[in-house]
Amino acid sequence: MVWNPPRLVVAISAVGTVVGGALLTKEYMGGKRFQAPTRADGKVVIVTGSNTGIGKETVRELANRGAKVIMACRDIEKCEKAREEIVLETKNKYIYCRKCDLSSQESIRNFAERFKKVNYAIFHATEEQRLDILINNAGVMRCPRSLTKEGIEMQLGVNHMGHFLLTNLLLDKLKVSAPSRIINVSSVAHKRGKINKDDLNSEKKYDEADAYNQSKLANVLFTQELAKRLEGTGVTVNSLHPGLVDTEIIRHMSFFNSYFSAIFIKPIVWMFVRSPNRGAQTTLYVALDESLEKVTGKYFSDCAVDDVAEQAKDEKLANWLWKVSEKRRFAGGKCRCSSQLGGKVVIITGASSGIGKATALELGKRGAHVVLACRNLSEAEKVREWIVKCTGNEFITCIHLDLNSFDSIRKFVEEFKQGNLFYITGHQKLYALVNNAGSFYLTNLLLDVLKDSAPSRIVNVASNSHRLVTKLELKDVNFDNSYDYFKVYGQSKLCLVLFGEKLAEVLTGSDILVDTIDPGNVETRIYRNFPFLSNPVLFALQKPIRLFVVKTPWEGAQSIIHSVLRPAENSISGKYF
């Protein structure tokens, strides 16, 4: 006799089989656990990006094992909530929150400086601060194109450049605390990565996935190069892949945040995605396992050494990336002025690219109403949309201005004076005129508005090339008899310096400040007509050198931004900066 079980029993059995299979699959896909009883009593550990996800679980486990942990986070409010939860659960009171925004070199430097001043190890001023483990965990993934405070593409800036700077600032403490460890949380995505030497900052083309893969490859290359440089110091450095983990890092991936995904995709993917706790296991293994005390320059996955991509083994590429990152670390001076512009109107000429574009972005961030005065309106409109997207400041507008034409300059001034550009009632105001391209005629036509808007300022962008010219060629000022492009360019910049000095003298007592700026040697389109740079072969030969001696547009814009923002009571005028 064949027994036919009731349908309910069959249904329950089927459901149990499916659920059990799903749980077993998830357990298997969760990867290995770090089960060693290793303690971390008294060890000082920094974990970046630790208010959520893998970082938070890493701190929780380190706290359970007796470590003293500094949670380095951008969002202090979320960090404090996570810290309170961990302290209450682990009964370890030595957990601290500190502000560290990896998209800002200033914030990173402030964090490192504060860390070095406070003794988290034993709270005795007589003993030196130590740092046993640095876990570079924070990251962003596939975000829309945006820039760090220093003008670096966000994924490269946070995932690599920010941690590069932080690590280098803390190396002295890691060395005196040896044996100590550095852990860089990378990803298997590095195997799809490519370091784009020609467009490292993704300015020509931006693909969210490519930029993320590049940043993760940079993590591995940084690890390899740093391991070589730290040989014999007792400081080890390793990178790792945490697995496919369900964390907030996918918040920019709209598909996984859609209703369709929530209903149909996530229930299936759930089996194959690790929890943050399981994602933290390899980090804990590399940070704490006693057998790894002298292991360095390796890449780990599932609590074991794994192979890296072929491009991650390129020592020359790793060295090149280090030098480029060093240049970013020791970049030229940054404008430290925190002033906001709160609706003040600024005109920037030549703002569709280079220094002008970078200046417009930074002033837009500070609330200025910016007029992009450009010859190519289609390019200017793209820049306008980009600035609005980056800053949320909708008061950015474009007006056509061709400085090759007096007629165009007059039309620009007329449109500016008559147009109600930013819904401002009454007379049009102008707080600052940034002559990034052109100067004399435009400035004179706008002087009445600048006087009416005082205190105001004029910033003329010159160049150190003015020193190439010892005197003006008054007998052949238009170079009709002979033409030397170096001499012509140098003379034009000398004219700007002389114009600034004379204009400041003429405007004495008017409450209008005049500055003349040398932005430095900057990588912009201005070099496109130079013979030795327009030649493809010569350009290719000199480009590797230029990477280390030429400023980015953002760096070149800093003195201009400072001149626009500097306090009005500082009445220095007519000077060259």
From TrEMBL:
Name the enzyme's class. Answer: oxidoreductase
Recall the GO molecular function terms of this protein's record: all-trans-retinol dehydrogenase (NADP+) activity
Q: Which reaction does it catalyse?
A: all-trans-retinol + NADP(+) = all-trans-retinal + NADPH + H(+)
Q: Name one Pfam family in it.
A: adh_short
Give the pathway listed in the UniProt entry for this protein: Cofactor metabolism; retinol metabolism
Q: Does the keyword NADP apply?
A: yes
What is the protein's name according to its record? NADP-retinol dehydrogenase
State the Gene3D superfamilies in the record.
NAD(P)-binding Rossmann-like Domain
* UniProt cross-references to SUPFAM superfamilies, sorted A to Z: NAD(P)-binding Rossmann-fold domains (SSF51735)
Does Transmembrane show up as a keyword for this record?
A: yes
Entry EC no(s): 1.1.1.300
**Any stretches that span the bilayer, and where are they?**
6-25
Query: Which keywords does the record carry?
Result: Lipid metabolism, Membrane, NADP, Oxidoreductase, Transmembrane, Transmembrane helix
Q: Which organism is it from?
A: Ladona fulva (Scarce chaser dragonfly)
